[in-house]
Amino acid sequence: MLPYFNFTHMTKLALARDWRNTTPAQQKILTDEFHALLMRTYSKALTEYRTDHRL
């Protein structure tokens, strides 16, 4: 997942025009937090999928 996603761009899209109102330091924090959120979300979904769909 990591090499295929541009988390900065994804965060920018999520914030839309509010991205322009943030400082570079805030953008870094937002991007880091968005990255962490997506990693937790996808990790949980994959773990639950594997657990629920065992043969």
Word description of this protein:
This protein has helices spanning 7-15, 24-52. The longest helix has 29 residues, at 24-52. The chain has one domain. With 55 residues, it is mainly α.
Write the layout of secondary structure elements.
Layout (H helix, E strand, L loop, with lengths): L6 H9 L8 H29 L3
Helix pairs in contact: 1-2
Briefly summarize what is shown:
The chain has 55 residues and is mostly helical. 69% of the residues lie in helices and 0% in strands. The chain has helices at residues 7-15, 24-52.
Low-confidence stretches: none
Mean pLDDT: 87
Q: Using the alpha-carbon principal axes, give the shape.
A: elongated
Computed Rg:
15 Å
User: How many domain regions?
Assistant: 1
The tally of beta strands, per DSSP, is: 0
Helix count, DSSP H or I runs of 4 or more residues: 2
Task: Assign the structural class, choosing from mainly alpha, mainly beta, alpha/beta, alpha+beta, or little secondary structure.
Answer: mainly alpha
Q: In percent, how much strand structure appears in the residues?
A: under 5%
Main sheet overview: none
Distance between the termini: 25 Å
Can you give the helix content as a percent range? 55-70%
- The secondary-structure element order is HH
Oligomer: single chain
Looking at this protein, list some descriptive labels.
single chain; 55 residues; 0% strand; elongated
